[in-house]
Amino acid sequence: MATRHDPSDQGDLGDTPTRAENVPASSETDAKTTAEPTATRGTADRTTADGTTTDRTTGAGTTAAGTTAATAAPAAARTGDTPEATRREKIQGTRGTVQTREQRLEEEATEHRRESAYQLARARTSNRTSTDFGLLLLRVLPVIMFLHGLRKASNFSGFRDTVAGNSFGALAPDVFAIMVVAGQLILPILIAIGLLTRLSALLMAVMMAFVWVLTQLPNGLIDARTGGIVGEAAIMFVIVSLPLIFTGPGRFSLDHALTAKRAEARAQRRADKAVA
Predict the structure, then answer these.
(1) What tens digit of pLDDT does each residue of 99-109 get?
(2) Which UniProt keywords are present, listed alphabetically (predicted)?
(3) SS3 helix, strand, coil % of the chain, rounded to 5?
């Protein structure tokens, strides 16, 4: 038997609301609240279970503002102090720069004075090239005496007899003969090469002065044959030796080569003393 469908039943079925339509308004609100982004939770957090509203966001904001203000206060104070501190630092830096510049200028001036004093001290111990060359020629002249000593050494017995014939030499003829021969052989060589020049020149001057006084002067001061001074050769050696005692040998000598560093040290000491 066919079942008859009631149009009213169809109408009733058509008018039956869907599950979504039958959901209550409160449920729909809860669903929307659940579906909202997490960003809105701050607002939801303000509603408590008993319906009381608490402004947590405002409280947090107030706390943050207070912290910011508390942090900003020292910063502001520091910011306010910065120009003064910076100004003091700049002044101190400027003073340090000025002091450093003054110290550098003072050191440069001191070094300049020391260098000038050193050059002056070195100049006092050095000569011009022409002067050193003249001293070299003066030192070579006593080599002539070497020839006299060589002749006496080759005939030492005859020279000893000559010394013994003198009233002063007769006291110790052998000693005086050896001294004169050794002096005339050694001293001219030392003077020529510039070794122990001042001492050698002094010994030569003393030796030849004694020879002139003891052997030549007793015969008179003036030579009747020539009209000159008796014993001019001995006097010449004395005259050649005396300047070397005061001037030294010059740069063209062994003495200068051996004492160059000592002369520089002496000049440096004089420079330091002049600056101090």
Answers:
(1) 688 888 888 88
(2) Cell membrane, Membrane, Transmembrane, Transmembrane helix
(3) 80, 0, 20
